[in-house]
Amino acid sequence: MHKRYQYNINQIKKILQHNLTIAKADKSKAIIIIDKTTVGQKIDTFIQENNIIKLNNDPTDAYQKQIQQTMQKCKDLIDKNKLKYMLNIKPTAPKINAYIKTHKDNNPIKPVIDNTKAPSYKIAKFLNRRIKQYVNLPNTYTVQNSNEMAQELQKSYIGKYHKMVALDIKDLYVNLLKQGIILSTAIWIDRNKVCTDIKEQILQLLN
Known about the structure:
This protein is mainly alpha-helical.
């Protein structure tokens, strides 16, 4: 974020009435001045519609311990001298930020989760890099970014009767089956002939 932009936001916050707050708009760089109660109601609506329940206890410390124990078993995957850099020293439960979907009816929220303080954040980034080394997925039906898509379209024949359709899958990532992801990863690791110890340690961390 540009420093001047953040400075302007802080100045606006100083002059707002206590019942008002600033929120970011989804899919734009706009900011919105909105009643705090309204934001709270939108978050409550999101929680109810997605069947989110409140836990009796914060599981952060338990997750931290579980991750640490698993990492210590992955000696072939993680250098023992780098283990301490793979953990957040003082982890906290991820926090939700509410972006406002100004382009939709009733302006619902888009939840943006800050995972940087979560127990698994650092090891997840490490694991992502390692999986890319061992899993060579074919990109027959995917593109890396919009520039690559534009280049592919330039190569394609598009007649006057062709139509381009854009589809948006609602809540894609939260609806992916975790065990299905782990099974798929195991299959592709096997196809790339990764040694058994590395494979098992990747799957342990992924779990």
